[in-house]
Structures are given as structure tokens and as C-alpha cells.
# Entry
Amino acid sequence: MTWRVHADPILWIAGLRALLLQAVHPAAMAGVLQHSDFRADPWGRLRRTADYVGVVTFGSNEEVARVGARVRGIHRKVRGTDDATSITYRADDPHLLRWVHCCEVESFVSTYQRATGALTPEDIDAYYAEQTRAAAVVGLDPAEVPGSASEIADYFASMRTETAVDRRARRVASYVVLPPMPRWATLSPARPAWAGAAGLAAALLPRWTRRLYGLPTPAGSDAGATAALRALHAAMRARPQLRPVHPVGHRAVEDLVHQRRLARP
# Structure
């Protein structure tokens, strides 16, 4: 199920949605803003995140172990105090790691489902169960990570008391919606195209999250966002050059096809 969901190009929209969702946890944002190069190099940060997800999804056991060790090593060095709340934080804190993980996987599967309508409830539960293995890569105990749709829903319900949108969350959101671009890009369709994609990602957020950001939530807004997402997905399907798969994914799919051929009688 993970291969099926993560191979779809609509995950670029899902990734932006995940960033906007993660930003509403103040402690998580304190670590990003104090220790990350997100503001100086947003494109590099997005690319590295996409590469990490690609390797964990499609990579060999050795590749996953290697990238996991590198990420855990980085997390061990990230710690500090949130200037706004005076709360200390650590990037390897299971509480924060679980938040980042759940925001990511819920965004991935919900965006894919709204774009395609192709998953059954059993498929979605299978996806979440598989993703507990991805959570283990960053050091989480899989037994303590939500592994089904109902567990994910309960998790977010329990976390809402910790969420807030402050100036830092808005700063991160502004970098997601309007990241710095080279001059040639600002004079091309790239700027409005990116802003439109980021705006769609924001429209796909849960209603409670949009309210925290002060975004409108009129009746029919969810249906409208889903319709726009499906139109974008249809355009991607019609143009193969807009349907990238991570290079590790290409190799993994080729290996799987080869294994199936060998298994034929």
C-alpha cells in the first residue's frame, strides 16, 4: 500500500499539506526555526525530505538503515528552549517525532484518497500499519505509533490542545506558500503555479487546522478542494512528464517485476 500511495505525483501536494499541519505544534516549529536551514534553503530542504521519503519507501534494507542512522544522528544534536513558551525540546523526543510522523502519513494517504477515491477502509488501515515501520526508522517504537485510521483520528483529537498558530507557524506557512525563487522564476508562470499548489494544500487541511490559521471554512469548501485536487490529478495522469517517481522507486519496481518473472512456472 505504501508503494501504491507514495508513487503517485499528487504526493507533492500532500507534502506541502504535511508541512502546514506540522507547523501548528509550537515546539515542533521552535526546533525547525532554530536549527533548520528551511528559511535559507527551502528548496534544498524540500528536496532532502522528498529523498528521505523516497529511500524509506522504496530503498533496500541497507539504504533505509543508512539514511535512518543519519537522521537519528542529526536529531540527537537538536535541542533547545522555545523562546515563546520557555519549554525545552529535543528533536529525538518521541512525542514530537510522533507528531511529525502522524502529520506526514495522514497527509499522504488522505490527499491520495481525495485525489483518487481508490482506497477502501481496509487499504487505509493497511497503509497506516505499514507506516509504523517507517516510524521505527527515526527511532519510534512502532507499538506506540497509530496504526489505523481510527487510531490516527484519536491521536489528532488528543493533540489539539497542544496546537496553536503563532507568528512562527505563519512564518513557516509563508515560506511554503511563497518561497524565495530566482528572478527568472518570479517572472515566469512558476510563481503563480506554486502559489496555487500551496493554496490547494492549505485548502486540504482539516477544518480545525484551517480555523487556527484563520482561513475560511464555508460550507462546501471541502468538496471544492477535493474537486480541484482531482482536476489536478487528472492533468498529471494525462501528462506522463508530470508523473515523477523517485529514482529508488524505479529500481525497486524493476526488481519486483524481475522477481515476479522468476517466480513464474
